[in-house]
Structures are given as C-alpha cells and as structure tokens.
Design goal:
By secondary structure, the protein is of the alpha+beta class. Among the domains are: about 130 residues, Beta-Lactamase (2-Layer Sandwich); about 60 residues, Winged helix-like DNA-binding domain superfamily/Winged helix DNA-binding domain (Arc Repressor Mutant, subunit A, Orthogonal Bundle), CATH 1.10.10.10. It is built from twelve helices and seven strands. The strands form two sheets. It has a five-stranded antiparallel β-sheet with strand order 3-1-7-6-5. Strands 2-4 form a two-stranded antiparallel ribbon. It starts with a helix and ends with a helix.
C-alpha cells in the first residue's frame, strides 16, 4: 500500500460514523501494518523499534519527534538532534524537540530561535534533501549566524525539511559538536529515507490527531506580513501602535488580523494569539 493510499484510507475512516476512539484504533491498525508489518523483512530491527516507539506517542507530536531524533543520533553517532513544526515564511524557527547524546556535553537547542528568513534556513526549506554545513567555523554559507552556532558548539551540521505532499511540516537538524565531520553519502541517504518514508507521513497523522495539522497548513498560507501583525498584537500593541510601527494604515492592520483569524479558525484576538504562538 502506498503512503498516499494510506492517508486516503485514514481520511475515509475519519468520515465514517464510528466513534473517535474506534477511528483511532482502526487508524493505528493501518499505521502498524503500513510501517511495521509490511516492512519487517527488509527493515533493520532498530529502525522498526523506533517506528513502533513513535506510534506509541502518535498523539504527542513533540515526543514523537524526540523518539525519531534519538534513533538518528544513536545510529549516526552525532552529538545533538533537534526538530520542530514550522513553515518556510515564518519569521523564526524554534525547535520543539531535542535529543542529546548522553556521552557529549552539547548544549540544548530548546528555547533557541533561529531567524527563519536567513539564507541558511531558507536554503534548507527549498532544498529537496539533506543540506550539509561542514566546518561551521569557516563555512561561508553560515554567514552572520556563525557566532550563534559556535556558541552552541556546532562543528558540522546537516538539516532537512520535513514535508508531506507539498505541505511543509518543519525542520530537522543533526549536529557534531565535539569535532569536525564530513557527512558521508550513506549517512545522508539514511536521513533522507527515514524522513521521507517514516517520519514525515507518521508526523502528518500525529499532527492531525493532536489537532495541529490545520494550524500547520494555515501557517503555510498565512503571509509573513500577517504573522508580523499578529506578533505585535501578541505583545499587547493596539491597532494604532501596530500601524505606526509597520507604517501601515489601521484599516490594513484590521484586515490582516481578520484574515489571520479566518485562516486559523480563531474566534477572537485572544484565540488568534494562542493559536499563532507556535509560529511566532
């Protein structure tokens, strides 16, 4: 069964008259069959164990991401892995899941925000595959983020966008913090295969189950200017103050906030700020 057919089957089941609990049980049966039973003959045991573990946390996307990171960190012997749900045009990216190799002393990425519109981040968003950033201290691609990455002890990184059927879901990054490392083709292939074949399609269902998928899709359609207006509103600025800060008219600010509310399904301004929080 293809991954597309899998999600089509899940969608049809959610449209049935069964109770939500019964629907989840049936969906879990399909997920186990698709990602475990049908792959036992040609998939390494540690990978199957990771997938089974991810399915245990199917209703907790951030914990699911942490499980995925633990597999990649241990398999590739890297020092740190981080991942998070986001979209390409948001102003900043903040990982929501981190796994650290207990043998290293790598700083955590939790609470660390990266400028999402920076050239290095946009390169990852717009590349179909893993992007290597070796010798961070000297790599010209890192640019003015070099000092920030060096403070996090990043020596060699690889990052990849997480996507499913042209919907951006987030980013994942793996770091060597103890020494320089040249990423080998088999390592990049492992990361690519794991993200495309397992992590992204499982994460889609996890976000759907946790009621966050519509937020991700809405964030992908919300414009950067709308999200900037929401960010200022979240700080408590009035319409007039937002208009003055962004050199817009009050009517434009009102229209952009109304548009953002409609896309995210927010009932009011407070609800809009709450729903937008993961993307600001």
């Amino acid at each position: 069964m293809s991954t597309h057919q899998l999600n089509k089957n899940l969608l049809l089941q959610h449209q049935s008259e069964q109770s939500p609990q019964d629907e989840v049980l049936l969906d879990m049966h399909i997920l186990r069959r698709r990602f475990l039973d049908e792959r036992r003959r040609d998939t390494p045991g540690p990978l199957l164990d990771c997938v089974a573990h991810m399915l245990l946390y199917i209703d907790q996307p951030d914990t699911l991401l942490e499980v995925a990171l633990s597999y990649l960190v241990r398999t590739l012997a890297v020092c740190r892995g981080d991942a998070g749900v986001s979209a390409p045009h948001l102003p900043s990216y903040t990982p929501s899941a981190v796994y650290l190799d207990p043998r290293s002393e790598a700083p955590t990425m939790l609470g660390v925000s990266v400028p999402n519109q920076h050239a290095i981040t946009q390169l990852v968003w717009h590349t179909n595959g893993p992007v290597r950033f070796e010798q961070v201290e000297q790599n010209p691609l890192v640019g003015d983020l070099r000092e920030a990455f060096m403070s996090l002890r990043s020596r060699s990184m690889v990052a990849r966008r997480l996507e499913y059927h042209n919907t951006a879901l987030g980013l994942i990054c793996l770091d060597h913090t103890e020494e320089d490392h040249v990423w080998q083709p088999y390592e990049l292939a492992l990361i690519d295969d794991f993200c495309q074949e397992f992590l992204a399609p499982i994460l889609v269902y996890s976000l759907q189950l946790s009621k966050r998928l519509h937020l991700v899709k809405s964030a992908n359609t919300s414009t950067a200017t709308e999200l900037e207006v929401v960010r200022l509103a979240a700080k408590g600025l009035t319409y007039s103050e937002i208009a003055a800060t962004l050199h817009k008219s009050v009517r434009t600010v009102d229209n952009q906030l109304r548009s953002a509310r409609e896309k995210l399904g927010a009932r009011n301004q407070i609800d809009l700020v709450r729903l937008s929080a993961p993307f600001l």
